[in-house]
User: What shape does this take?
Amino acid sequence: MVLGTAIAFPLAWLVGRTNMYGRRFFRGLFVITYMVPPYVGAMAWLRLMNPNVGTVNQWLRALLHLGDAPGPLNVYTLPGMIWVLTTFYYPYAFITISRAMEKMDPSLEEAGRVCGASPVKTVFTITLPMMLPSLIAGALLVFIGAASCYGIPSIIGIPGNVSTVTTRIVEYVSLGQKGMNDATALSVFLMAVALVILFLSDVVLAKRQYITVSGKSVSPAVVHLRRWRLPVTLLVSLFAVIVVLMPFLTILTTSFKVDIGKSVLDPKNFTLANWTTVFTRNETLGCLKNSLVFAAVAATVGLVIACVMSYLLQRTRIRGRSIPNFLITLGSGTPSVVIAIGLIMTMRGNFGVNIYGTAYILIIAYMIKYMMMGMRTVVSAMSQIHVSLEECSQIAGAGWLRTMRRITGPLIFPSIAAGWFLIFIPSFYELSMTTLLYSTNTKTIGFQLYEYWTMTSQPMSCAMAFGILLIVVLLNFILNRLTGGEFSI
Amino acid sequence: MASVTISHVTKTFEDNVIIRDFDQVFGDGEFITLLGPSGCGKTTMLRIIAGFEKPTSGELRIDDVLVSGGKTFVPPEKRGIGMVFQSYAVWPHMNVFDNVAYPLTIRRVSKEQIKSEVARVLEMTHLSQYAQRMPSQLSGGQQQRVALARALMSAPKLLLLDEPLSNLDAKLRESMRFEIKELQKRTGITVVYVTHDQTEAMAMSDRIILINGGVVQQCGSPEEIYNAPANQFVADFLGKVDFFKGEARDGRIVLPAMNGQSIPYDGSRRGRVDVAVRPENMYFSDDGPLEGVLETQYYLGDTDDCRVRVGQTLVRVIVGGYEYKRLTTGQPVRIALRDFMVFEDDGTLESLLEIRT
Assistant: This one.
């Protein structure tokens, strides 16, 4: 968490406020990680930092003449896991902080300059303290994300004997009834932690009244880095290469390998067989279909609910209209594993409903976890449409339905589309909840990938991972186009 | 205190010329106002003086020290200036005391000295009882004074004000206007003030520089600018004015759009002219040269705002409020002119009107 934020703030500042080369490009690049399934990242880092055959380790050994002993880096350790978690969760903080930075009135910083503070001093005495609430909120987000993450610990931690709360919970569940009790206890603990954090970040954000929005259009002043411009750009590029490019490339190259120990450039070692095998197998295609259908249903139903909630919240004065909003927020803040446990406990017939092992339980789980993303976009879109636009339509003689269809609908359509994808994409590659809730008929692509990785072949799973990645990137691209670049994950 | 010498400063953004060849000297202790419609380049000029923008060409000196121009560029924090922003830019995470003390804190002045200095400045800006408040607990006017106090804290040679009163309500604006002017008189500081409000400019300035489209239209005292405008734009921007087309010949100006009636003229212009008359410089008199019919009148208490139909033209005449009782709508009246301005009709008036509509 600390590491993630420590990385995110300077990055957000450099990208948002300086004349570093290629700011837009880097911005896009750092946000991309946000939409990559965490377990894909974990797989990549395993390939890179495996103590024996990891690519980075091989390079380092060659460079430093360390001989053939394993190491020097070992991903199957706590620091290894922390590193991988950091590379995957810093975008949360990055996005929160960048947004706050864009909203800040630049004259606040200029006032500092006029008062005699150098640019660096201004950053420390004005920008940083003003960003503190967002900084803390970002950090807490990273913490919650990392603490409740299952994908990364399950792939790295289990072989390395580094357990986290989430992997333990899953382990206990597989032990049957006796284990279930322990699992529940741990879930309560995790939930409590998450609640405290949620509460804290709420308090911090509530104090944030001081994001001032000036009447003038805000064009953030750009800090000129002068002679630091090139070195800083290089440093950021290096970071981007290590954190974003290297893992992706590894996944891609591994997917073409026959023998994962050898180089992909060796023609004898290059094959497309992994790809063809994976994507022609009925099992995979079935899982892919499952994932697409579940995600689509979850997104559609979730979004309809989100729209109704937004309308209640923004346009009516019904008592308790903020309760659903609160519940939805709570759901998204709950660690996935806890949601899954909760669903197992309640939906297995104990209360007259038994949908355990069916597709419904997965869809419900996805909705609980991701509905908030869609809801937030729709709410913010609706809050930006002044009621007078609707009232004006009514004055002009249109009924409520017609007003919705002709005025409100078209105005918020981009947000609705965005909201749909924001629920769809994470549901599509979900792993943590699926692990606990799947049955043989409802395996999803994420879980299938996990099985391939642990039981079948790494190159094949890499092919699959890259396939998933391509689909996600494609979806994000569509989303971006559809909404005129206003939304993307 | 400081003088500012601006030599041939031009600023362009890509293909847009924001400021064209600005060439002025601001004297020591002068209150200078940059006045103009929004987008005329006045704020950009102020930001060039502050050091937030670099001029594309030209030089800027403060007290004969080159601060912008050629390869030289002195950053804002080393220019010894104070500035008040339109949005006040009072830091929301510090209380009033810390906001105001900031310039001294930066310079590592001793605690006791900071305390006494801040107390002095807060006293001057009537903020003493608010020292411990957070900015969110202050009204707009108070925040504005905090910004002013902070700007004065570093005892600047030069104070820059960027539309500091535009976010305040009318009453407060008026009283702040005089407070700022008093402060300037007391401290003798050089002030550059940016505004689009002509009354503000008239009330405070020693000299007004009127800018339009990045070009200085006129520079002079409020009295000069109001009574002897350099061109139609200046006449139109300051105060109320009506323009009439006419023809100057034989000691008179004939106004075709007023049924060919004419007014006496002893100036030097001949041929096609624009006559500019301020409504308050006309009055009703039985021996006035223009004959018309009173069409409407609006009673505003202190004045009576009338429209008189003269031929095809509607003429605005503002007379004292007490006239209201004497006049009835529809009655024939004669208009006399106390004063009017004559410009050559070179087409500038048309282009001016085109911009405004």
